[in-house]
Amino acid sequence: MAEGSGDDGGERAEERWLPSPHPRTEPADASADPFGDPVPLPRRHTGAKITRRTFVALLSVIAFTATGIAYLTYDNLKSNVHTTDALGTGEDTGSPPADDGATDILLVGTDSRSDMQGNPLPPSMLKSLRTEEKAGINTDTIIVLRLPKDGGKPSGISIPRDSWVTVPGGGEAKINSAFGTAKTEAAAKLRNTGETDQAKIERDSDQEGRRALIKTVQDFTQIRVDHYAEVSLLGFYLLTEALGGVQVCLKQATEDKDSGANFKAGVQTVSGGEALSFVRQRKNLPHGDLDRIVRQQAFLSSALHQVLSAGTLTSPTKLGQLTDAVHRSIVLDPDLDILKFAEQAKGIASGDVGFKTIPVVTINGRSPDGTQSIVQIDPPTVQQYVASLVGRAPAPPVQPPTGGGGAPGGGPAPARPVAGVTAPPGVTCVY
């Protein structure tokens, strides 16, 4: 709003709101403050304007209110969020050094078919999630968020779910099976000891699955996982619904019956089951699993941009819905500071976080027995690449993966905008 006209108009407007040295006052009644002191009445003037001082005061009130809501929500969230001790006490001498120049947060998306209490999801919910009931669990999304301690640019490093790695206690296998294999073995042991509470078996075996996945990631990348955050299919569904959908942009129309994907080209808003199909599709994509990773990265950036720029965090209703979604389906380690993490997450929405994918040899590999399609990787190259992101090693020479037309630097080529389509801020067009 204008502050006045002329060189000193703003100052004169401000002065009109200041009391005179001998202000007129009214009795201590309706026009007095709560303590009974007389309130100076402003001088009469024509065309009063909001002054700089009033405007700053207004902003201060808004900021105070928003901060109060955020902290109230934080306290509510912290007291209700589910936690895991899967990181242990740090006494495992086989783990990489704790201080490697970065704080590393392992972000995991699972295809769990149970809720936080270990109870199976009803068929109606599974239908909404565009999936079916099945035994076991896989980790469809594995991202390590590296936050350099020297203030350098953070990196979100995606690990393809079909990466062929050494799984502790299970030999060589796809990395997304580490959680499920350990969970299955732990559940069998619990049943053999006489445990009959299926919900308890689910919860306790999940803990073993998380420990196995963390150890697998640590051994594979040679970085120490400092914090852990996990969201289930149900959680992803609820979060996107609470946001009212997330904007995405596709370079071309695509369809996949397995994931339920059926999308047009261009900008569109997806939520619930559609959002799950968007991040889970890999068939009929030019680069298969690597394109799915790019989708996940683009979706995460768009969702965070929406949360931080569209007033979501100042809406009590939306905050309540988000808190409920977090409570029902997200697991964190108890030492992860949610407010600090949210502050760091702003970098993702603003583009300050560089999303990357580990270097891969080929996306069309086969397991040694020839029965499985895998993503072949070279562990020493991956370890050097990850270390280079915080300056602990020179960046290794990385060749484009065979079988997918990927770009050097550990991932697919950046997506180009759709012809004639302008993506909104924070939204990237992908395949």
* Radius of gyration computed on alpha carbons: 27 Å
| Structural domain count | 2
* CATH topology heading of the largest domain: Aminopeptidase
Strand order of the largest sheet: 1-12-7-2-3-4-13
Q: What is the overall shape?
A: globular
| CATH C-level class of the largest domain | Alpha Beta
User: Architecture of the largest domain, CATH level 2?
Assistant: 3-Layer(aba) Sandwich
Proportion in β-strands:
15-25%
Q: Determine the structural class based on helices, strands and strand pairing.
A: alpha/beta
Runs with pLDDT <50, length 5+? 1-50, 62-69, 405-415
Order of helices and strands: HHEEHEEEEHHEHEEEEHHHEHEEEHE
- According to CATH, the homologous superfamily of the largest domain is LCP protein
Average pLDDT score: 76
Helix content: 25-40%
Q: Count of helical segments? A: 11
Query: Largest beta sheet, briefly?
Result: 7 strands, mixed
Number of strands: 16
Give the termini separation. Answer: 43 Å
Region (Disordered): 1-44, 392-419
InterPro entries: LytR/CpsA/Psr_CW_biosynth (IPR050922), LytR_CpsA_psr (IPR004474)
Keywords: Membrane, Transmembrane, Transmembrane helix
Family: Belongs to the LytR/CpsA/Psr (LCP) family.
